[in-house]
Amino acid sequence: MKARKRNAGEGSIFQRSDGRWCAQLDLGWEGGKRRRKYVYGATAQEVQDQLLKARVDRAAGLPVVVERQSLSGFLQDWLENSVKPSVRPLTHEQYRQHVKLYLAPLLGQHRLAKLAPQHVRAFLKKKLADGLSPRTVQLSLVILRRALGQAVKDGLVVRNVAGLVDAPRWKRPEVKPWGPTEAAKFLETIKGEPLEAAYLAALSLGLRRGEVLGLRWSDVDFEAKTITIAQALARVGGKLHFIEPKTRQSRRRLPLHDGLVAALREHRRRQIEARLATGPRWHDRGLVFTTGIGTPLEPRALNEDFEGLVAKAALRRVRLHDLRHACASFLLAQGIHPRVVMELLGHSQISLTMDTYSHVMPDAMRQAVVSIEALLGKSAAVD
Hints:
Layout: E1 12-15, E2 21-30, E3 33-41, H1 44-59, H2 71-83, H3 89-107, H4 117-129, H5 134-153, H6 180-189, H7 196-205, H8 209-213, E4 220-221, E5 226-229, E6 232-236, E7 239-243, E8 252-255, H9 258-278, H10 299-312, H11 322-333, H12 338-345, H13 350-356, H14 361-382
Antiparallel strand pairs: 1-2, 2-3, 4-5, 5-8, 6-7
């Protein structure tokens, strides 16, 4: 740059080799580093006005945007200092992956203060063209909105440009779990299998995979016939961790039917035999479902075991998570109130339950109408 000093009192203003004017404001030392703000403009007067505003903001105690701060740098700081202390490790890891894989490569080079709605729209268009699912792209936009929302609160930008951009359309895929006949055939096929009780728990109580694998014997009350969902097992940052339930509603106590109580008792008996046979190599973590030496069961291993059993039963292929969906569908189809199903599944909002299982509601409504007809007919007979 070739500097051209201006009149006294204007500050450090100079013209760049590309013709643009630039001003530099010294913000002092912070963390052992000198902080400076740079502003740019087409004319010296434009830059002078920006410099004056920055000085006024600083004198008033307002944050002064560091012009050269990149979106990538801001996102990394946001992940570490805002997200990490306030969310579950699994959520932080999800955000980190979206920043690393999607947001930073395409948007990270933009300066935070210069990011515009058109940049965000171009990002969405590019990721959809690359074949990324609309749901994943939508989640990236949600994360960007939250990050820029923090930037607005911190006074680093004046508006949340991601909030000005419409999210890609995404329709929740229709859930197509097994019906009662298919579920019964599966349960018949897996009798005596090492993880029979795990699948029965998922199908009977609608447990998530992580909740099944995080279950401890101390969470099982055979006398009261209940289990308490108090933790989940998940892979975070490449390592297995026991994490807090997803939401406050996810921490719940559930009743056990007699068949599940019997399956868990039999599973405990077999585990005790395995523990005695293994001897000192057994790692006692108090878990209900483990490897052959007592260590936590890899989530992917449970998926693979389930897929093998589905093939053995010659059933329509579904995901392990669809056992949870099947449980909810069975309950709603029997006329169980959605609020009860919501509590059983640990959903945070009843709207989530209703939206996810809307395909079941027509049958439930038909049963309700039949019940009303029967009630009115009985009432008329009494009259």
